[in-house]
Amino acid sequence: VEKIRLAIKDDSPIVRKAAVLAIEERIKAARGRDSRSFVQDITLALADEDKEVRLAAAMALGKIRSMEAIEPLLFALQDEDIWVKAAALESLGRIGGGSAVKTIKGFVDDDNGMVVCAALEAMARIAAEEHQTVEEIKPWAAKCLSHNDTEVVKAAVQVIARIDKQGGVSEILPLLEHADWDVRAQVVDILSGRKDDFIKNCLETHLKVETDDLVKQKIAEALKEQ
User: Fold this and answer.
1) pTM of this prediction?
2) What are residue 9's phi and psi, to 5 degrees?
3) From the CB of residue 122, how many other CB atoms can be counted at a distance below 10 Å?
4) 188, 215 in Cβ contact below 8 A?
5) Contact assessment for residue 155 and residue 129, using Cβ atoms and an 8 Å cutoff
6) Alpha-carbon Rg of the chain, whole angstroms?
7) DSSP state, 11?
8) SS3 of residue 201 by DSSP
9) How far apart are CA 23 and CA 8, in angstroms?
10) If you count DSSP H runs as helices and E runs as strands, how many of each does the chain have, helices first?
11) How far is CA 224 from the centre of its chain?
């Protein structure tokens, strides 16, 4: 362990990254026991000059799932590299902690779609474990339904469907009119799992105006199951 800790300070970024990964493997082998003792070591790597080392550290802290890692990961959200920032968001979602939601939700306004998707997924993970955060998170996910990045819209649809299975329909139903066929297809997939006369009527109505063959097929199959 001491040799690994020394390796985190090695001159070579390849060695430093390998040291972070080695600590991660030790944690896996120990199944989380005594993992807190490694948080400080990996935290040092979050400030590394090499982005690959910082990325490895951000991901490793999420796998440790120690509450002590929350503060360092919040710091990592200021990283200039979008991959490190996204990994920090993902790890915060893995660890949980409603206190992190306040910071995470601010990233739905980030300029990079990948970062926004990571923030949405992180909030969804937290909401799954801490149900009291759903009402705080839902408006921020709903905000992304009108995003100009299709991948962000699809991520937001999935998050709303996961955190609010009963009330989320009203938010995602208008997206049957979305310009992108894959968004419409995703909405149909989600709605198809809901047995409801109102949803059935909405799907029947939309089938008459849908132009994409795949979406039409999905609606037809969904109606058979209603």
Assistant:
1) 0.85
2) -105, 10
3) 28
4) yes
5) no
6) 21
7) S
8) helix
9) 10
10) 14, 0
11) 33
Query: Are the beta carbons of 176 and 187 closer than 8 angstroms?
Result: yes
On whether the CB atoms of residues 192 and 176 are closer than 8 A, the answer is no
User: Quick check: 154 and 189 in contact, CB under 8 A?
Assistant: no
Question: What single letter denotes the amino acid at residue 159?
Answer: V
**What is the reported pLDDT for 82?**
95
pLDDT higher than 80, residue 37: no
Please report, for residues 38, 92, 125, 156, the alpha-carbon distance to residue 60 in angstroms, rounded to integers and kept in the order given.
10, 11, 17, 26
* Tokens matching residue 28: 């896996």
Strands (E), 12-63: none
CB-based burial label for 34 (10 Å; 0-12, 13-18, 19+):
exposed
Cβ neighbours for 204, distance < 8 A, ≥ 6 positions apart: 223
Judge whether 13 and 52 are in contact, CB under 8 Å: yes
Spatial separation of the C-alpha atoms in residues 136 and 187, rounded to whole Å: 23
HEC secondary structure over 54-78: HHHHHHHHHHHCCHHHHHHHHHHCC
Which pLDDT value is given to residue 34?
59
Q: Which amino acid is present at 86?
A: A
Q: Is the pLDDT of residue 147 over 80?
A: yes
Other CB atoms within 10 Å distance of the CB of residue 189: 15
- Show the tokens assigned to 34: 């005594």
Distance, CA of 92 to CA of 104 (rounded, Å): 8
pLDDT band at 36 (very low <50, low <70, confident <90, very high): low
